[in-house]
Amino acid sequence: MEWETVIGLEVHVQLATQSKIFSGSSTAFGASPNSQASAIDLALPGTLPVVNEQAMHYAIMFGLAIGADINQRSIFDRKNYFYPDLPKGYQTTQMDEPIVGAGAVEIQLADGSHKTIRIHHAHLEEDAGKSVHDLFPTQSGIDLNRAGTPLIEIVSEPDMRSSEEAVAFAKKLHSIVTSLGISDGDMSQGSMRFDVNVSIRPKGEDKLGTRTETKNLNSFRFMEQAIHKEVERQIDLLEYGEEVLQETRLYNADTGEARSMRSKEEANDYRYFPCPDLLPVEISNETIEAIRARLPELPDARQARFVASYGLSEYDASILGGERDTAEYFESVTQHCGDAKLAANWVSGELSARLNNEELSISHSPVSAEALAGLIKRIKDNTISGKIAKQVFEAMWQGEGDADNVIEAKGLKQVSDTGALEKIVDEVLAQNPAGVAQYKEADDKKRKKLLGGFMGPIMKATKGQANPGMVNQILAKKLNQ
Predict the structure, then answer these.
(1) What percentage of the chain has pLDDT greater than the value 90?
(2) Which stretch of DSSP H or E encloses residue 169?
(3) Is the pLDDT of residue 320 over 90?
(4) Are 12 and 193 within 8 A, CB to CB?
(5) Fold of 418-479
(6) Which letter, b or e, does each residue of 424-462 get, where b requires 16 or more Cβ atoms within 10 Å of its Cβ?
(7) DSSP letter (8 states) at residue 258
(8) pLDDT score, position 342
(9) 3-class DSSP state for residue 57?
């Protein structure tokens, strides 16, 4: 039987406010455990929460960015459940009247096709604390610094049909929230986490299958792996005549294993009710329009500008314009070297490959935008070839200095002296009379291939430092005499 995968995402985004959503406690990452949890965060008797206005504005910014309805009246609810890292015994969130209503996000897939993913709503809520299981041999620790950090939870419709679409959607959301500046999007610090709802159904069937939810995935790669594993598991169950149980699951990225966590709850299991300590929030049209006027450039607009202003292809523009940090890095390289195409090739090629390999963000690149531009300048003025440039880049990555220092220290300057190159070409041709004869007897099409056969010995003689363009000119001139 042919199966169809159905995927929906719930994306938790920590908002980049200086203080928590209902208290003045700091949200700074990395503080010593339990040093940033106030009496309000712990809901001690006699404390009352106050809504963080900046968090409300950030949520509105997101809603406007995805063309969503902004609800001018929203309320906070209590979601009741017990877990050790939730000291209040409930989470303050939004259910019936969230601040952001229905919207949509357009994604682009690897084949160039586009698809619209509907967003059901996005609501504000507080984060829970964090359970720590690896510090004590027989006990778990609780760090409540994160408790009360403002989140926006983005809930999609079940519109995705593959892990590729889910990852593309998650990446697009990441690019939107980081471009807006409402979150740093640092998944290693938990700033963005994904809950993935997966079900399968026979191809052509309209009715949705039983779904499972895999929680707290904190990378695009882990999300892709978890989806593949869950789809395979559900197919195996159904094809062997068993049923898929509605449950919450966990995925261990270190072992590649998934396991059941608990049976999936329904909304009534949480006994939602309006929070008695918080009044409904009223947002005026004037406030919404003032926020709209301050929106920064969004990913789709930036990509269109890269095509129009820099002559990039749509594909290159999507790679370089999707994330704000990458876009700013690329534009800085272009500004310093004056060549957008070469800048695009190096940022999306050599640099991105190295960053991915070492799991670094571009903001932590050992090679700055200005330093990379300096390398590109040396390619443009024929000081080094593209091949040697990769050696120089490697040395720069290892902290050996800028391009000029590396080229000088390693003696990598390209040989462009016509007299010296002619002498080497003459020696190589003299050592290969059969090749010369074969070239002279060949037609034009074959001659181009044979010409390359002389390049190897010439490059070896010059330790790879001969100017390839000049060598080709000299070879053609001498062979065609």
Answers:
(1) 71
(2) helix 163-180
(3) yes
(4) yes
(5) Arc Repressor Mutant, subunit A (1.10.10)
(6) bbeebbeeeeebbeebeeeeeeebeebbeebeebbbebb
(7) E
(8) 96
(9) helix
pLDDT score of 267 more than 70: no
Distance CA 231, CA 237 (A): 10
Query: pTM for the whole thing?
Result: 0.84
Question: pLDDT of 103-126, one tens digit each?
Answer: 999 999 988 899 999 999 999 999
Domain boundaries, the chain: 3-290, 297-410, 418-479
Q: Beta strands 90-93 and 77-80: pairing type? A: antiparallel
Q: Which two tokens stand for residue 343?
A: 């800048």
Nearest Cα to 200, choosing from 211, 213, 189? Answer: 211
Q: Where are the beta strands (DSSP E) in 129-182?
A: 130-132, 141-143, 150-156
CA gap 311, 307 in Å, rounded: 5
Strand partners, 154: 11, 122
First-residue to last-residue Cα distance in the chain = 69
pLDDT band at 269 (very low <50, low <70, confident <90, very high): confident
DSSP conformation letters of 319-379 = HHHSSHHHHHHHHHHHHHHS-HHHHHHHIIIIIHHHHHHTT--GGG-SS-HHHHHHHHHHH
- pLDDT at residue number 418: 67
In the chain, the largest separation of any two C-alpha atoms, in whole Å, equals 97
Asked if residue 200 lies in contact with residue 238, where contact means CB atoms within 8 angstroms, the answer is yes
Q: Helix, strand, or coil here: 406?
A: helix
What is the rounded CA–CA span in Å between residue 290 and residue 264?
41
Identify the residue whose tokens are 């471009």.
179
Q: Mean of the pLDDT values across residues 71-94?
A: 93
Residue 348: both structure tokens together:
């999306």
